[in-house]
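re: ur question from yesterday

yeah so i grabbed the chain u mentioned. its 391 aa long if i counted rite. heres the sequnce exactly as i have it in my notes:
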Amino acid sequence: MEAGIVGKPNVGKSTFFKALTLVDAEIANFPFTTIKPNVGMGYVRVKCACSELGVSCNPKNSVCIEGNRFIPAKVIDVAGLVPGAHEGKGLGNQFLDDLRMADALIHIIDISGRTNEKGEPSTDHDPEKDILFLEEEIDLWFYGILKKNWGKISSKIKCQSKEIAKEITEQFTGLGIKEYMIKDALRQLDLAEKTDWSDDDLRNFAKNLRENSKPITLAGNKIDADTRKNYERLKDKHAITPVCADAELALRQAHNAKIIHYLPGDGDFKILKEDLDERQKKALQFIKTSILEKYGSTGVQETINKAFRDMLEMIVVYPVENENKYMDSKGNVLPDARLLPGGSTAIDLAYKVHTDIGDRFIGAIDCRTKKKIGRDSVLKDGDVIKILTSR
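ran it thru and got these structure tokens back, copy pasting raw so excuse formatting
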């Protein structure tokens, strides 16, 4: 699964992306800096199972720092959207198409209100308008697909007795939308048995499908510049996370330079270098007092955790080969941490590890209880699992 970083131009998406991944992305103060999407790996932070099990782990596919496991998660930074993108305005549908396989969206908004709807400098723009316009653009994108193909869909349902869910799913498979999502939307809107849809039905279905197939988490970036207190006004209504991507990028770069010790998501840092110049001291002091002490963190780590853990409801599972010592065949303790969709089963984990492992699956062991579990056993967050295979 992957999360798409979206929003209008010039709100700090590329800075957020770089802070999250430390991948070089062009950062400039003008619209449409990002022409092609940047793809990288962010890291979801969870408490590692090593602490609970009382062992020292040797991660291979992830990182464990001070009992915190950082697990790679794919993110894509897409160029800025402007109102009317579904009609080709700005750089148009190219950007919507870049989002087609995103499972969740991280919407970066300029909470300070210093950029207008086109991403141009402003003084008093209401960021709530940006929240609503992006939702509307994607709704209209979905609606356009459905409207364009509705005659064909309706004809097949009426004349060929085709299933409505399957026919609609066929139109949206290129967007990573599954049939169960279509069925959920049909059921919630009481449209499963209706063949003559009004235009309102089409629009309501598109909106419902967007809400369920592309869940959005909101990041109120530039919180340090929010002099008009937009965050306080909007935080509860829209569940906004306060973010300062500039501060997070500075902290991560300072950590890499061994100037400070900082763990992404923490509310503090430790200065390691004594001979800091005055500029560095002021910058770190500002981040400490104006961001970390005030909001608890820079918000970047919290945002990606929300996208994958809350919006997508993903769990973390640790596959091992030795159920007693929690090791792989080479003696690495808790070597892998896998992000899986909630509701995943033992057989899903087996195929996630390797196709051959899945094909030869005969059972699994819950390493905490030492009990054998079957292929359809639903896994829990934090499970440590040994997969049993035929020879």
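noticed a couple things. The chain has three domains: 2-135+215-306, 148-212, 316-389. also Confidence is low (pLDDT under 50) at residues 24-35.
anyway ttyl
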